[in-house]
Amino acid sequence: MKFKLFTFFLLSIIGIANAENPGIISGKVTNKTTKQPVQFASVVIKDGPKVVSGVVADEKGNFQIKNLELKKYTLEVEFIGYKKYATSLELSSSKKSSSIEIVLEEDITELQSVDIVKEHSIIEQKTDRKVINVGKDLLSAGATAAEIMNNIPSVSVDPQTNAISLRGNSNVRVFVDGKPTTVSASQLLQQIPSTSIKQIELITNPSAKYNPEGMSGIINIVLNKNAKIGFNGSVNSGVTFGETPKSNSSFDMNYRSGKVNMYANYGLTTGKNHNHGQINTTEPNDLNTQYFDLSNRNTSHLAKVGLDFYLNDSNTISIYTTQNINGYKSESKVNVNYVDPAKTDIYQLFNSDNDNYTQTYNLDYKKNFKKEGHTLEFEGNYSNNDNTEDSQYNTPPAQNDITNKGENVLLNLDYVNPLSETVKLEAGLETRIENTKNNFLLNGAYNSNFEYQRNIYSAYTTIAKKWTKWNAQVGARFEKYTADALFKKVNEADGKFNDNLFTIYPSGFVTYTPNDNDSYNFSISRRVDRPGIDQVNPIRQWSTPLIDSQGNPELLPQFTNSIEVNYTRKTKIGSITSGVFYRQINDEINRTLTENPNNPQKQILSYANIGDNHAFGFEASANLDFTKWYSANISFDLYNKITKGYVETDYVEVDVTTFNSRISNTFKASKNLRFQLTGMYRGEDLTLQFLRKPMWKIDAGSSLTVLKGSGTITARVSDVFNTMHFAFDATKPKAQNGEFHWESQTAYIGFNYRFGTGKNRAIQRKERDKNETQKSGGF
Fold it and tell me: For 153-175, what is each residue's pLDDT tens digit?
């Protein structure tokens, strides 16, 4: 109710502000040659360099702009395929309205169709991050963010669980538009359509300005948001054919007129997924084979609606909400076959019905002072989630009902002040309050509940200095962290846990750019990984006849010190980026598999602080246009890590070097038709308990531009040779090996249609006459 009242109040302010001024400018836009109306032309009113207001002409070429002050203005009219039109006019007390006839002249050198993305992706190395501007090659690589991520240098997405990792480490935070989200990363990546993504930022050594969580850094997904005057949008729909068809659709729109910018995004994914596998236990006296057959039917809705209101050049208010509804039904069959005939084989059926609803509300206010770059910004963010699980087991017969509820509040204040042309100061405050409550009913009766709350209060400051070829930045973040947990279970004593820490997180960056083609970057930072709710929640997450999965409420945060050096070289055919990094991790959090103390025949899959870890590595990536018809994105990384810790009571130390590589080739057959051939290899990896075997696959795809540039048809075959699967060997706590398969080999067909101000009869005629030049453009 409060949110509705606030929205009503804000819109009332807008209406009052727009009613204060009496001036009106109206007119009609026509084609000089055909005398026909120019539909949807952009009309802008300027007071000097400042944009005062603007509209889009209607289907008859007419427009009207109200609520203008009585003064001199510049009127500008633009439309794709025409030369820009500009004229001066004046409103006064004796002439409060003005009507003008505008005649546009065609420009035969202009674009005749609108492409919202470049031909291929471009990687930029900036002071504190690597920015991948998403191009058609990545859009053709997949229908969702998860599939795009697997073609990004240094990033890996587990194709079975959708767990994301950066530089071989899964302790990474995923942001959307620079903000955290309550939706889990694995779920989020499946719900964001690829066509909604503008950029992907890899912040491997974030500055003190950013939240320090995530050992390997932050992955920020920047969604398309068009602020140009007018109405623009896109519709995307696709079907993936595996064992069963799965659909993924999205709709994006943006409307900007005068002081108001409105946007909306909606994505729908639905389908049934199937995977299967087996685990072989080779431990003497416990020889058995576990067979798994898992099916999951999922439907997910993800919507975002927002409004930017430009009060004036100095003040902007933005609000948005995201609504996520996700439901899935799981069916699983587990067979445990023992070699020893004296042991009874087990056959378990498991059915689960899950519903999750997550909502976020965000308010942002930004103040621009008179000095360029001098700003103050406040952001308030509230989100909550409600998850229910209803599960039934046949062996032993059991009914499990689990309820998870969570609330998050984020308050953030950022201040930026350019002290001089070469020195910039940044400072800020942040408060995060997170509450989670979980309740477990066994066969309809209360069994246990878990409450977890953590509060984080932080302040940061950074200062940056520029020289002719140098740019340096140093800063620190000061953080107070408290966590309290309470676990209650029938017939057991209450389990309590609390943590109270004050930590300083320093960071530093130095960039050297000797010329336009070379750039060197050095950075250092300290970061933390605090246990997530899934890692600390001791309530059972899932169960099989021989394995129970649950969290560990006694987990401690892990801290990471990182150093990295990067070099970027621009050449005539593209850019090449390479870098080295070193990480020291204390009290590393990792997966553990231990014997169940209450049942030696079963194991517990959980988390623990396994000890210290040292890792260093090298990575390189390149975007190269070898010819007009062939380009490639190439990347590889090589890293070594030494991990020490305890598995049960045994001290273990492992030293492993892992190699990963990717190459995405784009072949341009014609102006509108291109083909992609992508290959990836993920080398073996060794942890304290498991050896993960190598994985590789090859994808092939194509894209065809249709409807005079407004539509794109995409087709793809993933894992052409059906080689992608997960396999492992383990020695502790039992000697085991196994592998899992999923619907990796699939075929996808999709269509994307873009609409807005890029439609015009003259443009269509020029296409027929072939008086055009092709280049990258955008709405």
Answer: 677 776 555 667 776 666 677 77
DSSP codes, 210-259: S--B-TT-EEEEEEP---SSEEEEEEEEEEEESSSEEEEEEEEEEEEETT
Q: Is the separation of the CB atoms in 476 and 504 below 8 Å? A: yes
Average pLDDT, integer, range 453-471: 91
| pLDDT tens digits, one per residue of 659-696 | 888 888 889 898 889 898 988 898 898 887 788 899 99
CA gap 391, 442 in Å, rounded: 10
Q: What is the pTM of this model?
A: 0.71
Three-state secondary structure call for residue 135:
coil
DSSP 707: G
Question: No. of H helices and E strands in the chain?
Answer: 6, 42
pLDDT of residue 8: 44
Q: Calculate the dihedral angle through the C-alpha atoms of 61, 65, 70, 76, rounding to the nearest 10 degrees.
A: -50
Distance (Å, rounded) from C-alpha 562 to C-alpha 507?
A: 9
CA-CA distances (angstroms) from residue 137 to 156, 563, 668, 675?
Answer: 18, 32, 11, 9
Give me the count of residues in the chain.
779
Q: Does position 116 have pLDDT exceeding 90, yes or no? A: no
Give 537's pLDDT tier (boundaries 50, 70, 90): confident
To which H or E segment does residue 387 belong? strand 375-394
3-state helix, strand, coil in the chain (%, to 5): 5, 65, 30
Q: Which residue has the tokens 């940056």?
A: 464
Please report where in the chains the tokens 């408060």 appear, as a residue.
431
Cα–Cα dist 472/763, whole Å:
48
Is cis: bond before 396, omega within 30 of 0? yes
The CA-based diameter of the chain, rounded to the nearest angstrom, is 104
Tokens 């920047």 belong to 222
How do residues 410-424 score in pLDDT, each as one tens digit?
999 999 999 988 999
| Residue 475 host element (H or E) | strand 470-489
Amino acid identity of 644?
A: K
What's residue 382's pLDDT?
93
The C-alpha atoms of residue 106 and residue 136 are separated, in whole angstroms, by: 29
Q: Are 48 and 76 in contact (CB under 8 A)?
A: no
Mean pLDDT of the region 228-252: 82
Is residue 143 very low, low, confident or very high in pLDDT (cuts 50, 70, 90)? low
- Which of 515, 512, 521, 623 shows the shortest CA–CA distance to 566? 521
DSSP string, 38-75: -TT-EEEEEETTEEEEEEE--TTSEEEEEEE-SSEEEE
Strands, E assignment, 311-345: 315-338
| Nearest C-alpha neighbor of 707 from the set 39, 115, 34, 110 | 115
Count the Cβ atoms, other than its own, within 10 Å of residue 393.
Answer: 18
146, 151, 156, 158 alpha-carbon torsion, rounded to 10°: 50
The tokens for 266 are 């909606």
User: Measuring CA to CA, which residue among 407, 410, 420 is closest to residue 373?
Assistant: 420
Beta-carbon-side half-sphere exposure of residue 427 (alpha carbons within 13 Å): 4
In degrees to the nearest 10, what's the CA dihedral of 289, 656, 568, 635?
-30
For residue 279, the model assigns a pLDDT of: 92
For the residues 651-657, what does the mean pLDDT come to?
83
- What single DSSP character describes residue 94? S
Residue 314, SS3?
A: coil
**CB of 464 within 8 A of CB of 472?**
yes
